[in-house]
User: Fold these one by one.
Assistant:
Number 1:
Amino acid sequence: MKRFTPPADWQPNVLQSGAFAHLNQLFQLSHEQAWPSPAWLNQFLTAAVHSGQTAKFVANGELSDETRYYEAIIYETGQIPTREENWHDLFGALIWCLFPKTKALLNACHMADIAKHGLQSRTQHRNAITLFDECGVLVVTTDPTMIAKLQQHHWLDAFATSRPAWGVHCQAVIFGHANYEMLTAPFIGLTAKLLPVIVTDDYFNLDLMAQYQYLDSYLYQAISDSELLADNRAMSPLPLLGVPGWWEDNIDAAFYENTEYFRPKRTKSAAAQ
């Protein structure tokens, strides 16, 4: 299996693929000539954490003596530790800017789980929160059958046959910031976790920022009101390089014939064996 290695320095050319289109449209990220700083990122942040503190990105160097757990720092102070010149933390910060309500809620969920079970106990709920936070991708569509195709691993039908629907009645929206980091050096095998969102046609008439605001409010309510992230079962695999427009090779339907990447769904009998 390929070992993932992100670019060592600031290379805006790696942000040219369609997977980064939203970030480039909303933040002009690929036009930046140097690493975005925490101060630069703060101009886009409108979050408040659930303790009442206003959220703010703070360079790790300014918190060098901090010994509290990462989520506790955020919850108790509003300060979001941010490593400078670091792809992972850059994309994590941008997700805070795009999903401020949901990110603050997940932080509060972490803290509630730790208060109940202890810091060293990794519950199913906390594992699910972390997996979604790192690897989650929303598939937003007006057509529930598209979700069924993806969940049943009918990759050719979902991605190739149904290609005209992508960008019109269906879109993939990255939430997990580790996905963005790995897409700076994409490789066959790169797979995220799908969380479905069914919408009406009106959603696709919204501008991009309004779509993110809708999704942020949707996630906040869905996570607050249900068992959506009680465990990992709500999320299924999503091969990221299969998303139309995110990888140049997928314009050819033969790309989806690689069953080592686009794996068929395991049957219960196969799983048992």
Number 2:
Amino acid sequence: MKCPHCNIEFHDRWTENVFAGSWSYHYTHCPACNKITIQLTEPHGATFTAYPRGAVDRPVAQEVPAAISQDYLEAAEVLPISPKASAALARRCLQNVLRQNGIKERDLSKEIDTFLDRPDVPSDLKGTVDAIRNFGNFSAHPINDITGLQIIDVEEHEAEWCLDILDGLFDHFYVRPAKAAARKAALNAKLAAAGKPPAK
């Protein structure tokens, strides 16, 4: 199985316990991170993961600032329980990403407009970010400094897509620039070793 905590695959060995009649729970430890995964089995046989509740297959790159990562992971964790709460956290996370990168308007819809006008944004990312305003009629519920976590109706797939959109923004604003800076630093180290000036 793939560990829902660290995303590392391992050979799972489950320990089973029966409680409350015919209910049972199973748990296993990941040998990589040593964190536990717990599953519950209902009397009619359906099994679901009780812990961790979400964030499966949604690791956040280390380049993403901690405060933004926290909102993202919380949005992923509550997704199976409340898509509306997940979408609210994801929208706040989206706004924080835009504002941290120099975009601040009176509400989120205007900030998205400003982002879409940037010439350096890839067209595929523009399309997905623009689409978020159609989820749950977001444009009718503008996020500003007062309504930052406003709860509105959304479908589960819409809330999940919000997280996918954030993945693209994380790559654009944090991951790719960090990789480019690392490549340039490595090149300059080689140039310095050869007695040449650094790259511009």
Number 3:
Amino acid sequence: MTMLPFPLDFHERAKALGSSTLYEAAHLPCAVDSAIRPLFDGAFIAAPAYPLECSPGDNLGLHLAMERVPRGSVLVVGTGAFIAGYWGEVLTVAAEAAGVVGLVIDGGVRDVAAIKKRQFPVFTRAISVKGTVKASAPSVGQPFNFNGAWVAQGDLVVADDDGVIIVPKAEVARTLAEGEARAYKETQMMQALSDGRSTLELMNLAHWRTRG
């Protein structure tokens, strides 16, 4: 069993907070390019990362990862944003058998109907029918900069309808705690708004009323 460096209830806490609140709480450059979107509405991932890089149009690294990835991980796959169908139904079935809980990739997937039917959470830059070769694997399990956020094995990936963030494993417990404090304050603010107070007042912006 893989020992996590963050709380055992991280999945439920991350899902309750969501990627946007956790991004604000992290105070880190941990947001991934917003062009990487969920394959279907409601897809959600909160899991330790297993990073790998594929050569453009080459998905050998994904096949190698299936024999190395710790169960309960999400694959974070860099392709240099080269669009092709690196992932489809076959790899989805293989991933489920290997205990992989999701995929974040910047290079494209296919077999969309089959993936949706299995409800396997995928976040991708594109959908592409183009096939791939199997000739090289630049890195499997090694850290790299994934579309704006550094990713290393064991970092926490949170992905939902708002986007994808990657929180360094050493910062996860703090980020969750600060996220919950932030969410509590927002709950209080929304109650005050319902009672008729304004955002200008609650956010100390009332002085702007006399400007502009």
